Amino acid sequence: MTDQVDHQVTIEDLAELMKRSAGVSVDPLILEEEAGSGWDTFGLDSLGLLGIVAELEKRHGTGLPEQMERCTTPEEFLAVVNGALAKGA
Amino acid sequence: MNRRVAVTGVGVVAPGGIGIPQFWDLLSNGRTATRRISLFDPVGLRSQIAAECDFEPSAHGLDHETTQRCDRYVQFALVAATEAVRDAELDLERTDPWRAGASLGSAVGGTTRLEHDYVLVSANGARWDVDERRAEPSLHRAFTPSTLASAVAEEFGVHGPVQTVSTGCTSGLDAVGYAYHSISEGRVDVCLAGAADSPISPITMACFDAIKATSPNNDDAAHASRPFDAHRDGFVMGEGAAVLVLEELEHARARGARAYCEIAGYATYGNAYHMTGLTKEGLEMSRAIDGALAQARLDGRDIDYVNAHGSGTKQNDRHETAAVKRSLGEHAYATPMSSIKSMVGHSLGAIGSIEVAACVLALSHQVIPPTANYETPDPECDLDYVPRVARERSLRHVLSVGSGFGGFQSAVVLTGPEGRRQ
Amino acid sequence: MSSQSRRRNAVVTGLGVVTPHGIGTDVFWKTVKEGGSSLAPVGKEGCEHLPLRIAGEVRDFDADALIEGTFLVQTDRFTHFAMAAAQLALNDAGFGRADIDSPYSVGVFTAASSGGGEFGQRELQKLWGQGPRHVGPYQSIAWFYAASTGQISIRNGFKGPCGVVAGDEAGGLDALAHATQAVRRGTDTVVVGATEAPLAPYSIVCQLAYPELSRSDDPQRAYRPFTTAACGFVPAEGGAMLVVEEERAARERGAEPRATVTGHGATFTGASRWEDSRAGLARAISTALAEADCRPEDVDVVFADALGVPEADQAEALALTDALGPHARRVPVTAPKTGTGRAYCAAPVLDVATAVLAMEYGVIPPTPNVFDTCHHIDLVVGRARPTELRTALVLSRGLMGFNSALVLRQGSVPSPE
Prior knowledge:
Chain B: Belongs to the thiolase-like superfamily. Beta-ketoacyl-ACP synthases family. The structure holds three protein chains of three kinds. Chain A has helices at 11-22, 28-33, 46-60, 74-86. Chain A is mostly helical. In chain A, helix 1 (11-22) crosses helix 3 (46-60). Chain B has a single domain (5-110, 145-415), classed as Peroxisomal Thiolase, Chain A, domain 1 (3-Layer(aba) Sandwich), CATH 3.40.47.10. The mean pLDDT of chain B is 97. Chains in contact: A-B, A-C, B-C.
């Protein structure tokens, strides 16, 4: 692993993951603007969220806290995932 | 046409109980058959536990040729059907074979064999352009789910309408429901109705791992299936089969057969909500319950026992509790409701028929099987779940419900001799 | 059947097809009527080396243009076909959201035999190649046979009776029978049919053990039922979905009945026992005609099962004689599926769609790639045959021993008192 910046998941990464893992197309700018809204605003369901978490776990080679699947908004999700990655979860 | 439909025979292959006496002994004593998976090495899986059948085909009269030709789930069905036909003292040669049908359910069919051969032809998942020369000769039978109904029909000389029903985890209830319709509406006089699944394989375990639907309680397998308990954490995979002999009531009477009970009503609806998700309100399941009750010309207050889907996932048990309350009203609180999945696990498509078989036996013995492992009440699940110990009770009408991936919501009402309307 | 259930007629109001000939009934019918064939060498990645050479593939199917991304990622190709065909059928029927009285009045029923094979193979490869954590969250809902019914129900908000039969070929007609029965029991509308996508490499490997599978490498000769050159059947992908409605409900929203499903019969005579299928198919036909209140001579056209295996073709020709008597030699028989291949459960559903179109256009489409027959039937070959058609009989048999027959009448049929 390199420096900590590589461990951060950005809003762009999340938008890309939403498309790839869940088939949800969302403009990163809009995702950022409405990051406090529920996942259903963007059409993401519980299975899609599970797929995104699994993909992140594979990419970072590490398990992530179960709590992530209960995050209800992109904002909360990014805070939890980046917190966990920063701690070297 | 609205003919009455009797259950005249039952056969079961369930974890911890192959054959009716063993199955009922397990249920009525509240024993559990869940354990660490032994059918393959589950290392690396999130959920490493299941309810497995200790099944030795030759001990149940299956010869080598049948074992080679038929997958495990088909073998289960053949053994269960043999027991049911014997139990019904049904001589199919003395019945018009064109008026005898078969309706067998399975959620995943030959998946286990498909995976087994896939590993061979793909060199352990290394190649997309698989090598057909490594496939086993009966692979096409695993690929074709109608094999299930075909094998059972062939074994018993059935020549009427035959079908494999595959509505996910309600397959076993729907197979009974379709058979009920085919008799009550006059298309057949006798129908072998049931379901079978043997899904304990890496791909099926892994796909439920991926959505965290199965229990990760690997350290306490015997107590891992905890329907309605506050600490429930998912379902425990199972396997097995059950087959009933359903018969038009007059047909059964004419040959002097004993009728255990009648199938009095059946209904199914889609929830059009989510492939795996369930609402908190349970509207669509309630609709199915209401439909089955209406067909049986009964009211929710007539139900003496609810055999729950009770898978042990957070959302299912909550959903189902809400649905039963919606349909039975205040009477729901006075109605025992239990889940045998606490003991025999969740055998996907098979379990619906195994649960109907349990209802038939409950009516016959006037005993309600318990919900094993139920310790801690959940405020969202506030009905009487018959904790841990079977209960004697006068039973006239019982309800069995099911819920499946794809949004299927089904309900069957059974009426015992005490409740038979004249 | 009781007089009470008689009063609720199940009529066809919409057709949606996804086929090797093309997508939608216009392009499909054009090729069918001309007797065109879309059988071709298998072109799928990873299949080049397999001993199945010829198949009916659906080309030019743009799933991205027809189905939302959130559905696409969680479904196999067979469900893409089903969702697209269902939408085409609903459009064809002019059935929109405003036509739904109650969500519980619209059901979905499909038949499926090969499931989500391509999706399943991908996930198996991840599991065995990389480990269990690489299996995605959609495997549990994409591979199983119920996927299409569930997704069509969810996409459209249909909460009526939903079901699935996992039959082989004959299951397609059985699904239509289930839909008809649901209508008679009280459901207003059922979206019903079957689609298959059995041409992924591992799915093909699974089919190679069928003794009935054609291994010919010549698209013109691979599937020639009822001839001395019959050498098996050619598998295909695609299928059809139909909108079946209770007649009065259809008329109330201004839709004209295009055909009525009047009779069905199903029997079982054992896997690959083709000689025995003669009695089974004859019995199924007689049952279907009796339910339809039809005499044998009322049948204006037969859409044959046409397996392409000599014993099976012989059994079918004899079954027609057994069930229809002298009329069997006069009634035109056709098998347009020799131009598309057999898409398992979907094959007879596509035949039903073709039968509805044939009755509307007053034309019997021919049997592609077949020029004569060695059986005593009037097989329509070469050119389409214009004629008035009021009653069609559609036949299907499954490799595992199922026989089914369905009777369709053009337009609506007055209920007997």
